[in-house]
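Entry under discussion copied across for reference:
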Amino acid sequence: MSELHSDRLETVTQRLKASGARSVIDLGCGSGALLAYLMEEPQFVRLMGVEQSGIGLVQAKQRLEEPMAAEPGRLELVCASYTERSSRFQDFEAAAMVETIEHVPSTRLSEVEQAVFGCYRPGLLVMTTPNREYNPLFDLAPGEFRDVDHWFEWDRAKFRQWGQGVARRHGYRVTFGGVGEEHPYLGHPTQLAQFVRQS
């Protein structure tokens, strides 16, 4: 695991902890890296990982086999898409979306918005995504993405525009930050948005 990725997981875990949340849903949990961090924290008594990729889910089950066996019922893994408006993904105090939004085709972002912010409505959502402006420092060519599975990578202005629009439309307050070594002009390698639902 890269240093940046472990920084991301640590940062998201600390933000979820600081919120006081006891139930967390990881939307796009991949191979379960964040869930492994969350299982280490007794504060989180109910966890769910949602992942569309069957391969990712198998990897998550393998990674989390021991802690799941030690505490049956604490963590549930579900093969599904977070574009689905499903009631089973409601009633979580907090949610995480770590490096997953960029894997969604741009044409489906409105479905994500309606499902996550309109249907699930967690009290807190912490989201991270690559900062495109930083890519030259990774020796990437103009227009080249960090992963072949990415449909897009946003610059900071675009991410703010999207996040502020989502927050305004669904009754959330959003603040922005970053993870990793900050460049004076290019920002952080990872962008972070924290959405808090307004009562």
About this structure: The beta strands are 23-27, 46-51, 75-79, 94-98, 124-130, 172-179, 190-197.
